Amino acid sequence: MAYPGYGGEFGNFNSQMLGAAPDVLLGGYSGYPAYSDPYSSADDTMYAYFSAVAGQDGEVDAEELQRCLTQSGISGTYSPFSLETCRIMIAMLDRDYTGKMGFNEFKELWAALNAWKQNFMTVDQDRSGTIEHHELSEAIALMGYRLSPQTLTVIVQRYSKNGRIFFDDYVACCVKLRALTDFFRKRDHLRQGFVNFIYDDFLQGTMAI
Q1: Least buried of 42, 66, 111, 123, by fewest C-beta within 10 Å?
Q2: Which residues pair with 72 in a beta bridge?
Q3: What distance in Å separates the CA atoms of residue 9 and residue 179, rounded to the nearest whole number?
Q4: What's the CA gap between 191 and 209, in Å, rounded?
Q5: What is the C-alpha to C-alpha distance for residues 142 and 119, in angstroms, rounded to an integer?
Q6: Pairing of strands 130-131, 165-166
């Protein structure tokens, strides 16, 4: 089975992502650079949203992140993100396992959300504010993932409501795909598409998301 590749961190939507990138290894996913974002005036705006809700430790928990994202209006005309989606956003980037998110991690998330939102709007051709199962499959392919029809069916069933996928559920799907693929990829040292898990390691990696 082929595993996904990334054109860039969290989704660099370009024509290359429609097929396998040149550096795709045997396991089916390409390498991607560590996140780096030169300072821009947008940082000031992001920091204002972040610092307005952050605690004295300079970090936010899931409830604070939910308030921050709602106040920022990043979801646009779509419904604000649910608390559960915010929890898994933090888990995706919680490299020190504090259950919270610092500003640098928030900037990574902000970039991801903007890219995912752009992708959602691209496939929502009827501008209904939701996407159907074939549009979700297209969105996943645009992000560089190569998944089997069976896996796509499972994903659609998990994240659709009456045959439609709302933006919040779509983002939750993107977060989980990104986090679980990262978890797998770090252990697939030979990029062969399969690994041996210790049960406890598997539970730690999957139950957190």
Answers
A1: 42
A2: none
A3: 12
A4: 23
A5: 8
A6: antiparallel
Please tell me what DSSP assigns to residue 14.
S
21 contacts 30 by C-beta, under 8 angstroms: yes
Task: Look at the block and give the residue holding tokens 């998944």.
Answer: 147
What CATH class is the domain 52-208?
mainly alpha
Can you give the pLDDT at residue 42?
Answer: 58
Element (H, E) at 165: strand 165-166
The residues pairing with 161 across neighbouring beta strands, listed in sequence order, are 164
Residue environment code for 62-73, b if the CB has 16+ CB neighbours within 10 A, otherwise e: bebbbbbbbebe
For 85-101, the pLDDT digits (tens) are 999 999 999 988 889 99
**192's tokens:** 């062969």
Between CA 130 and CA 112 the distance in angstroms is 19
Alpha-carbon distances, residue 54 vs 43, 51, 60 (angstroms): 15, 5, 5
The CA–CA distances, whole Å, from 5 to 91, 159, 169 equal 21, 22, 22
DSSP conformation letters of 36-77 = -----HHHHHHHHHHHHH--TTS-B-HHHHHHHHHHHTTTTT
Q: How do the domains of the chain map onto residue ranges? A: 52-208
- Return the biggest CA–CA distance within the chain: 47
Q: How confident is the model at residue 192 (pLDDT cuts 50, 70, 90)?
A: confident
